[in-house]
Specification:
This is GDP-L-fucose synthase. With 315 residues, the chain is of the alpha/beta class. It has helices at residues 15-26, 45-55, 70-75, 77-97, 135-155, 181-195, 215-228, 245-256, 280-285, 293-314, and strands at 7-10, 32-33, 59-62, 102-106, 159-164, 166-168, 199-203, 209-210, 212-214, 235-237, 243-244, 261-265, 274-275. A six-stranded parallel beta sheet has the order 2-1-3-4-5-10, sandwiched between helices. Bound molecules: guanosine-5'-diphosphate.
Length: 315
């Protein structure tokens, strides 16, 4: 991928796409193509095809998706399935039709069966039933992996699928009804500390185990894969380390300086009991995560506080 290459980052307004654009610019890639979802609806096949024919990108990072936490996924499954199936299918097919040199498809660790052996290896895919709270999203992501792999096998397309674990970092969604656990707890604890509240609600039992990858580490992995990996997917991206939601809550409380109680709310779902990726395949290819969780949470806290202040200043 030379510095003049034309690169399309699909989903540049999201946390992952935003991190990719920052990283690519830092490395001197200036020929980037982006479109907001208002400018280009990737669920629209004709519009997506016309865009690819007009822009003719050589490299594509497919980071556009409808994403959300456990509550959003279980409340809007039809939208999570339809939007993500359409986005994946339209972008991958248009990339094939217009001769894109390489495409990097981003999925999620929720593609693996709910009770697959841990840490989750890539070959666990399609070996058992999925977790019900995000099955719709997972099925769409599995379809996109299958598309990439079959287009590779049948048409010789260099399409690679990376499966990141739970992500966090600058640009994350801090809306409490649709966000993932890490930004949600960060925000709740900042608010509680400022209000002098004595406790913070943590959904579920606190026992589920999750692994968290900083989005800048993911951007690093994506560039690595774009440069050095040409294999059928899925390929896991994570830290290889997990912790319980209760431990995560304690860590965030410590970083934020919230000293009140953590109250577990059993009326909310736990979701998958454990989701730790086996990261051996990408490690064998030469990549590993660098940002330690506490450091990453600290950076995300700074981003959140600054971002919140900027937004307040504008209003
Ligand atoms: P998941 O990894 O797909 O299950 O997505 P989430 O990040 O939304 O949730 C991970 C775990 O954190 C689940 O067991 C949630 O119940 C738990 N959790 C605890 N507190 C919260 C919260 O405030 N928001 C969210 N989204 N999850 C929470």
């Amino acid at each position: 991928m030379d510095r003049q290459a034309k690169i399309y980052v699909a989903g540049h307004r999201g946390m992952v796409g935003g991190a990719l654009v920052r990283r690519l610019r830092d490395e001197g890639y200036d020929n980037l193509v982006t479109r907001s979802s208002r400018e280009l609806d990737l669920r629209d096949q004709a519009a997506t095809r016309a865009f690819f024919e007009h822009e003719r990108p050589e490299y594509v990072f497919l980071a556009a998706a409808k994403v959300g936490g456990i509550l959003a996924n279980s409340t809007y499954p039809a939208q999570f399935l339809y939007d993500n199936l359409m986005i994946g299918t339209n972008v991958i097919h248009a990339a094939y039709e217009t001769g894109v040199r390489k495409l990097l498809n981003l999925g999620s660790s929720c593609i693996y069966p709910r009770l697959a052996p841990q840490p989750l290896q890539e070959d666990a895919l399609l070996t058992g039933p999925l977790e019900v709270t995000n099955r719709a999203y997972a099925v769409a992501k599995i379809a996109a992996i299958e598309l990439c792999d079959h287009y590779r096998a049948q048409y010789g397309c260099d399409f690679v699928s990376l499966m990141p674990t739970n992500l966090y970092g600058p640009g994350d969604n801090f809306d409490l009804t649709s966000s993932h656990v890490l930004p949600a707890l960060l925000r709740k604890m900042v608010d509680a500390k400022e209000r002098g509240a004595v406790s913070v609600d943590v959904w579920g039992s606190g026992r589920p185990m999750r692994e968290f990858l900083h989005v800048d580490d993911l951007a690093d992995a994506c560039l690595f894969a774009m440069r050095h990996v040409s294999e059928a997917g899925p390929i896991n991206v994570g830290t290889g380390v997990d912790l319980s939601i209760g431990e995560l809550a304690a860590l965030i409380a410590d970083v934020v300086g919230f000293e009140g109680a953590l109250v577990f709310d059993a009326s909310k779902p736990d979701g998958t009991p454990r989701k730790l990726l086996d990261v051996g395949r990408l490690a064998a290819l030469g990549w590993r995560a660098k940002i330690e969780l506490r450091d990453g949470v600290q950076r995300t806290l700074h981003w959140y506080l600054n971002h919140r202040e900027e937004r307040l200043a504008r209003t």
